[in-house]
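Deliverable D2.4 — example input (structure tokens):
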């Protein structure tokens, strides 16, 4: 499986969960992979040791740090923006600073990272953001702010796909449904409720999301752009 041999790959925010699976997949495919993390240093170092990828500490909420990190990787073939946070709760009592930080990480950072990467990205490069099926369906209370951030990614990928399409660069959102991770454990208190919305009543595994990212980023993904690739067990059906 050498589908990314020689490719310069940067994955943002992936010490754990879906992002770590994406790092594993691109590294297994032969890519020259670097990834960022914010707080989970031990997990990031373990992932780097396991995969041979390079771990870089960079907080996506810090625009200058984020842009410097992206610029520092040179001409990328693939940028995957996975870093995300989830703040749920009654909008009347939710902490406004936490909501704004989520918007920084889930909305501002993907935009600035994508634009910075595109300055030097090679022709036929790939930009992928990990969105969410909650951009299309928010079937429970307390998720307005999170859904807002993921819906914003839909507008971003549609627009940037047109901005960079003349260079063969594709821009897409992968929209998982419930996926087993620290953010959303398969055995967590919300699991049964989430499965009740699904046709296939289980959490996805992170490696299932990573495999879709590899397809979109790979040679067969050249005509997929400006699109939402939903992988949700029918959550949004
Ligand atoms: P986790 O909480 O398990 O992992 C989040 C990852 O993002 C961590 O590696 C974390 O690194 C990194 N991260 C968070 N904030 C920052 C930051 N400010 N700067 C850099 N890195 C950061 O989440 P998941 O793996 O579940 O989610 C990954 C993505 O998938 C998110 O965008 C999420 O919204 C999306 N998603 C997840 C679903 C799910 O059910 N799990 C469903 C739909 C979408 P560190 O620990 O070092 O801070």
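Example output (designed residues):
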């Amino acid at each position: 499986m050498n589908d990314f041999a020689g490719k310069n790959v940067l994955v943002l925010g992936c010490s754990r969960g879906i992002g770590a699976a994406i790092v594993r997949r691109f590294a297994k495919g032969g890519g020259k992979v670097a990834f960022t993390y914010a707080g989970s240093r031990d997990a990031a170092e373990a992932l780097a040791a396991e995969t041979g990828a390079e771990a870089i500490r960079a907080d996506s909420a810090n625009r200058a740090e984020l842009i410097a990190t992206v610029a520092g990787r040179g001409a990328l073939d693939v940028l995957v923006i996975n870093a995300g946070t989830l703040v749920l709760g009654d909008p009347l009592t939710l902490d406004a600073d936490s909501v704004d930080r989520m918007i920084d990480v889930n909305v501002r950072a993907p935009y600035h990272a994508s634009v910075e990467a595109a300055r030097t990205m090679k022709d036929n490069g790939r930009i992928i953001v990990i969105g969410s099926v909650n951009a299309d369906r928010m079937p429970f209370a307390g998720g307005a702010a999170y859904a807002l951030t993921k819906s914003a990614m839909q507008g971003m990928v549609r627009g940037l796909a047109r901005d960079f399409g003349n260079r063969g660069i594709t821009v897409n959102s992968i929209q998982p449904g419930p996926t087993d991770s620290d953010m959303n454990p398969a055995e967590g208190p919300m699991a049964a409720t989430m499965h009740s919305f699904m046709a296939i009543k289980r959490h996805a595994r992170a490696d299932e999301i990573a495999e879709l990212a590899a397809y979109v980023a790979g040679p067969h993904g050249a005509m997929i752009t400006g699109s939402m690739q939903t992988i949700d067990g029918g959550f949004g059906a």
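The chain has one domain: 8-231.
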